[in-house]
Fold this protein.
Amino acid sequence: MKKIRGRMDESILVCVYYGPNGERLIKRGHKLSQIMDCPLYVLTVDALPYDEFDAEKSGYVDRWKELCDELEVEEFIIRDNEKRSSVKAIAEVAHNHNITQIIIGQSPQNRWEEITKGSFVNVLLRAMSFIDIHIVSIDRRLKSTEEMSFEKGVRGFLQKDENGNYRLSFARSKDNLYEGIFYKEIGTDFNNGVFKFINSQGKTCQVHVTEDVITGQLADPPNVKK
């Protein structure tokens, strides 16, 4: 059961985009909401439908959902398949949830794709003149020096071979132990990439695949589907 907030005249919205800085923004928002004893909401906006997110994007979203559950955030909001500008989507969410404070990253104009001219902050301020905006600096240490790109996900399965290794398969079989989505790295002729699936506890898991074989351990006992 979520804690009943003491102040309902204040409400905080954290806007996150794809990248490791999102967790930092959420934690900053949570700290502020604890100090003010008010509700906290987290929002991400994307022009693509959720089922078309690549492995990297969906991985970030899953982690943000987990973090929001851990911190007892009021609501994690995904506005996918959004054809309007991010500013309009944020403004609508802010209005619907009586938001009084918004937290964003330092350089959102480089992150929100449709903002190509001027300052994103200035556009946001013009759209929501009665809301306080907090700008959190991006930690450059969190930026990856090499960003992987993946093809669109395809349905796949994991089987255990005679050596005890988990191996990727694309055919339905009684030997399949896990069903999920495989995201192949762009620029490789082999099945290298990421396999994403739901374990028997209902938690989203993500493992690396190298030439059809899972690298690393699958600690969760498989939920066999026949």
